[in-house]
Amino acid sequence: MATSMQDPFAAYKQQQDQLKDGQKQTEYRENLNSRLMCSECREDPPNLTEEFSSGDVVCATCGLVLGDRIIDTRSEWRTFANDENNDDPSRVGDAMNPLLNGSQLETSIAFGEGGRARELHRAQNRSQLDKATKGLLAAYGDISSLCDAVHIPKTVQESAKHIYKMTDDAKLFKGKSQESIIAGCIFIACRQARLGRTFKEIHGLTNVSKKEIGRTFKQLEKFLMTQREHDAANANLYSLDTYENTNSTGAEELCGRYCSQLNLRNPHQVEKYSRLLASKSSTVKDLAGRSPLSVAAACIYMICALLDDPRPSRDIATAAGVSDGTIKTAYKFLYQAKGDLIEKSWLKPDGPGNLAKLPTN
To answer: Which parts of this chain are annotated as the region Disordered (predicted)?
Structure first.
């Protein structure tokens, strides 16, 4: 038992003796590390500072410059999510853009100031960009500028661009003007996103006739339905994931935008009841076949009066883009059917409305 207890101790002692013998046999080696020291202060350890702005190594004690033209190894710049600076320091390019063709590995030279910079920009574009890519970039720029002019969201803009790219790849509109194709893409992207935009509004935005927009829209819708069935790769796209034939824009979809232009006392309340009234107005036979614009305008006119926040019909006509007489005519039919359209829960004491405030014409 004693032998078993002494063996581990003896082994440990032998190991320590071997380590000591090895340290004694180690030869002396000169320290070859290069150390920079101030020749004036000769402090150890040296108190040195790197001035990256001037590229100098300076003694922090006496100020003696010990080296110059040093290399700054720090990060050149940092980017932040909330950085509002318009200058982008990145020089490695964007990620692959699915809306463009090719490898997209070429370098783009920005359009700078001065004649030489403009010439360099044009020369680089002529040598690098092919004709198809130039056409796509021009179309995407037109879509963005048109959509920004009427505050269409970025997601809808991207949807319109993707639809344009699909039609361009399929050569669907060979010989048709680019303006009419862009107008159709914007219209169908808005329709799929449930953004109420009428042919009249797209016509005013693009100067393409309503008849031509309608033709383009029908061709696009037929093409996209076929594409959705045969192209599974597009299943995750915003505009095509559950693509369906769309119905015309209803009056209730237009009420929100018109209410936002009227400087109402309580726009959310007016919009809420206007939408409800517009959805029930389809039961009025005299309004069948009338434009959704005039029906939406008449509903807003009626609800504003009902909620004791009346607005002149000419102001609503300006917001909706219809005539004053059109609103009055549609309102007349709404007023005649007010008993069926206006629910008791909308009226006092349960609701905010008052039938006595409704004008007779």
So the answer is: 1-24
Average model confidence (pLDDT) for the chain? 82
What pLDDT does residue 358 have?
A: 93
pLDDT at 2 over 70: no
The CATH number, out of the four listed (3.40.640.10, 1.25.40.10, 3.40.50.300, 1.10.472.10), of the domain defined by the range 251-357: 1.10.472.10
Contact assessment for residue 200 and residue 293, using Cβ atoms and an 8 Å cutoff = yes
Answer whether 0.85 is exceeded by the pTM. no
Give the pLDDT confidence of 124-141 residue by residue, as tens digits.
777 766 777 888 989 999
Structure tokens at 75: 């990060």
